[in-house]
Design a protein that fits this description.
With 611 residues, this protein is α/β, with parallel strands linked by helices. The protein is built from 19 helices and 27 strands. Bound molecules: 6-O-phosphono-alpha-D-glucopyranose. The site of 6-O-phosphono-alpha-D-glucopyranose has 15 residues, from α9.
């Protein structure tokens, strides 16, 4: 949700900024802009993609060793040239880029208008630029002090990079709520919303905390709080390979990430499960494990795809460990006065580790003294830093806005946790424990096999790419997969799709079924198989088109469904990890055939750092 990049050092800033914006474009792509500081301050900004900005600046002066850049996901003000970032203050003293929302911006705007300030845009960011400038001019203080004082008056969230025209030897960065990372090079500094634009230049980073302000100059870095308390910067080493953030020959990041799943799942359980020793070991849970074993209740919170992974978690924990589970949308949980007990375990699931609602829900749970565990993908992100224990998914960087490998990695972590807990609580036998570990170990090879059927998914996609609606049905562990399949399709192909528990179809969606309605049914062999076969018959009786995901060799469904897509057999506890893959590929192919922008679907952003 908006990407920020900045540079100060001895190199030309422009190539660093533009490459950085391309790496961050998944965070928002309504518009892009940069500002460069040399003898003067220049701002170039454009509605549209980073490539539109690149074309726009092709004949402009792009020199300067200090600069900031922004790719926007609009919150206040429509996405047009004028509302694009950077924004300059009325008298031109400050240029700023911002990720987040200034909630009290209209009150601040009115106050500034009363003092003679006029505004060119509809954005909350311009209000902040003018507030900083007002304090700077009126108070005759330094840029740093003006920034700190202005931020003490702001309610809301921000990641900021700021240039002051009169102090051209520094960049100021500040964070509250929205992520910001400082890259530390040799006599140079980088600013970015996440480490991806930085990693090709330096592996040494400082993650800013809420209320931190960093003043970056060619001569060094000062870190303080907005209250002016001096802080000691904690430089950390990031282990992110540049290959992870490139397409590596695939047409889209999403396709690359789908195909990475055999490896990413292996990375998720590598060193954590041992088939030989018959063991699961999750180091990040060691301290809280006794609390997990005695937990009376687990509450899982997340948004989007992470919430779907949480639903699979509910089935897993209840089934294998017999612990009651509630799964909540973080946004609902935080605002509905939930009952949270001290002996509750709250598991927050998030790919980015930055989702604003999930973070706020975590803070609420912490306040109620619950034990909060994070399951996150992005190392060093806010959620792992705010939770007392956790498990990284290690899926590697996910760039495609539609989440794929992060989902299977999250489900893998939840599976390991549930198996481990079930065994310790004596809810599953030693034999089941062993066989589930073995099965999990076999999942990457099974997904490898599913990926070899890709051309079949493409064939089916060609037949239904023009459908206007889809229904996805599943039962038990596969109901959340039906939701996830429907979400994938709507996110990237803009076809309306609904996921339903297969049995619920009779209570509404069946009214929608006619000869034009494709119904994707998850029908692998489990205890509900016969019932799902009946659900397929019900769809066929209304002339619906059935695309069934079945186990290899299924002869019953192949006789009644219009299309069967085969996957290898697994126990039902692990079936979500396999059945989701054909659904990811179906939506991918349909979106490509409809000429949609798969990696950057309209209106979406990968990291949602606003409410
Ligand atoms: C956005 C993304 C989704 C993601 C959701 C939650 O909507 O587009 O792919 O599932 O946020 O994000 P998180 O990073 O918390 O998993």
């Amino acid at each position: 949700m908006c990407g920020i990049v900045g540079y100060i050092g001895n190199k030309q800033a422009y190539p660093i900024l533009i490459n950085g914006l391309k790496r961050l474009e998944y965070r928002g792509y309504d518009s892009a802009g940069i500002s460069l500081l040399d003898n003067d301050v220049r701002i170039y900004k454009r509605k549209g993609k980073v490539s539109d900005l690149e074309n726009f600046v092709s004949d402009k002066d792009i020199s300067g060793k200090i600069g900031i850049g922004h790719t926007r996901w609009a919150t206040h003000g429509e996405p047009n040239d004028i509302n694009s970032h950077p924004h300059s203050s009325m008298n031109g003293s400050f240029v700023i880029i911002h990720n987040g929302i200034i909630e009290n911006y209209s009150r601040l705007k009115r106050k500034l208008q009363d003092r003679g300030y006029t505004f060119k845009t509809d954005t909350d960011t311009e209000v902040l630029a003018n507030l900083i400038e007002y304090i700077y001019i009126k108070g005759k203080v330094s840029a740093e002090i003006a920034v700190r004082l202005a931020l003490s008056k702001v309610i809301g969230a921000y990641g900021l990079a700021i240039i002051c025209k009169d102090e051209p030897d520094k960049l100021i960065a500040a964070r509250k709520g929205s992520p910001l990372v400082i890259g530390v090079g040799d006599g140079e500094y980088y600013i970015a919303s996440d480490a991806t634009p930085i990693v090709e230049y330096t592996k040494s980073v400082i993650y800013l905390n809420d209320d931190d302000v960093a003043i970056l100059g060619q001569d060094g870095l000062t870190l303080k709080t907005i209250k002016n308390d001096q802080l000691t910067p904690k430089i950390q080493h990031i282990d992110l390979d540049i290959g992870e953030i490139e397409k590596n020959g695939f047409d889209h990041f999403m396709l690359k990430e789908i195909f990475e799943q055999p490896r990413s799942i292996l990375d998720t359980f590598r060193g954590r499960i041992s088939v030989d020793k018959n063991e699961i070991h999750l180091g990040g849970l060691h301290e809280v494990f006794p609390k997990l074993v005695t937990a009376k209740r687990i509450i899982i919170i997340g948004c989007g795809t992470s919430w779907h992974a949480g639903l699979v978690g509910e089935y897993l924990f209840e089934d294998l460990a017999r612990i009651p589970v509630e799964v909540e949308y973080a946004s609902e949980f935080r605002y509905r006065n939930p009952i949270i007990n001290e002996d509750d375990i709250v598991i927050a699931i998030s790919q980015s580790g930055e989702t604003a609602d999930t973070l706020a829900a975590i803070r609420l749970a912490k306040k109620a003294n619950a034990t909060v565990i994070g399951i996150c993908n992005v190392v060093g992100s806010s959620i792992p830093r705010e939770t007392e224990a956790g498990v990284y998914t290690h899926a590697g960087t996910e760039i495609g806005v539609a989440s794929t490998k992060a989902f299977t990695a999250q489900v893998t972590v939840l599976t390991m946790m549930a198996i481990m807990l079930g065994y310790h609580k004596k809810q599953i036998t030693a034999e089941d424990y062993k066989s589930l570990i073995n099965e999990l170990n076999d999942i990457p090879a099974k997904i490898e096999k599913i990926l070899t059927y890709n051309s079949k998914y493409l064939e089916v996609s060609k037949l239904y790419k023009d459908a206007t609606n889809f229904i996805y049905l599943g039962r038990g562990y596969l109901f959340p997969v039906a939701l996830e399949g429907a979400l994938k399709l709507k996110e990237i192909s803009y076809i309306h799709a609904e996921g339903y528990p297969a049995a619920e179809m009779k209570h509404g969606p069946i009214a929608l079924i006619d000869e034009k309605m494709p119904v994707v049914v998850l029908a692998t062999k489990d205890k509900s198989y016969e019932k799902v076969v009946s659900n397929i018959q019900e769809v066929k009786a209304r002339k619906g088109i059935v695309i069934a995901i079945v186990n290899e060799g299924d002869e019953t469904i192949s006789k009644i469904a219009d299309h069967v897509l085969e996957i290898p057999k697994s126990s039902e506890e692990l079936a979500a990890l396999l059945t989701v893959v054909p659904l990811q590929l179906l939506s991918y192919h349909i979106a490509v055939l409809r000429e949609c922008n798969v990696d950057q679907p309209r209106n979406l952003a990968k990291s949602v750092t606003v409410e």
